[in-house]
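JOB MANIFEST
job_type = single_chain_structure
chain_count = 1
residues = 163
[input]
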Amino acid sequence: MELTPNLIKGSIEELLTDTDLPDELKTFGSNILRLKKGKNHYSVFFVNTLLFRVVEKKTIIRFEFRYTYKEFFDDTISRDKQGWVIVEKADPTEMKEYKSELLKIIDFEFNRVQGEAFGCCSHYMECSDKKQCVKTDFLLSLACLYRINLLQNKIFYGINRNV
């Protein structure tokens, strides 16, 4: 099986579909979840942090997770000389066996970059009128508690007030 960007993206997005993560974190694109082609591997990034690499070997697909994430895997997972946590599969879709580990890693990184939660910002009236968060800094908007109310169609201010 030839490793392609669409195959990798599709396999990972499928794992993230039925999760509690914000929708913006479940798909590739933007600057949140990215795939980058290296010389002989693909790298999966969350914001600017490398989550893991995908390397195609002769008969297997090798997922190399950063050593930082070793605590999310049980001790039976191997490590190479450079410290990468190694998961080897015949096909990228077989990564579903490690869905809980991948979710823990993404949740760890999400909480690391998201920052401290806050009630709302100075744009609350504009957000209310547009029925969505208007912040262009997506990670900052994820820390906004009013954004959660807007997603649940609970609007406290402006022309669309319904609570």
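[summary]
The chain has two domains: 5-114, 115-163.
The first strand starts at residue 33 and ends at 37.
exit_status = 0
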